[in-house]
C-alpha cells in the first residue's frame, strides 16, 4: 500500500513537471507602419534612374520599371505612412512634384 502511494506521488510529480515545460506560448505582432513607392514608366527614358526627394529631407535614387499589372515585380522603396511631398527629377529637371498620402502597407504607384 505504501509503495502504491509513493509511486502515485512520483507519477503526479512527473506529470506536473512535464506539463509545465510544454505550455503554449502565444504572441502577436502587427504590420510595420511602412508604405512603399513604386516608379513606373519607360526605363529607356530614365536610364540610370531618377532622383527622389521626400518632404525636402530624404533623398534617394530610384530605378524606373515597366508597368506590369499582372506581375508586381520590380523595385519598391519604403517610406513612412502619412502625407508626403514627393519631388522626382531626372538630370536636374523636375518631372513630378505632388503631395501624396500613403496608408500602412500600401504600395503607391507613381507613373512617370
Describe this structure in words.
Helices cover 18% and strands 40% of the residues. It contains one helix and seven strands, in the order H-E-E-E-E-E-E-E. The strands form two sheets. It has a four-stranded antiparallel beta sheet with strand order 3-2-5-6, with no helix packed on it. The protein is rod-shaped.
Output the strand order for the largest sheet. Answer: 3-2-5-6
How many β-strand stretches? 7
> What is the ordering of alpha helices and beta strands?
HEEEEEEE
The SS-based structural class is alpha+beta
Count of runs of 4 or more consecutive helical residues = 1
> How much helix is in the residues?
10-25%
Q: Kindly state the mean pLDDT as a whole number?
A: 82
Give the overall shape.
Answer: rod-shaped
Strand content: 35-45%
Which spans have pLDDT < 50 for at least 5 consecutive residues?
A: none
Q: Could you describe the largest sheet, including whether it forms a barrel?
A: 4 strands, antiparallel
Termini separation:
88 Å
How large, in whole angstroms, is the Cα Rg? 28 Å
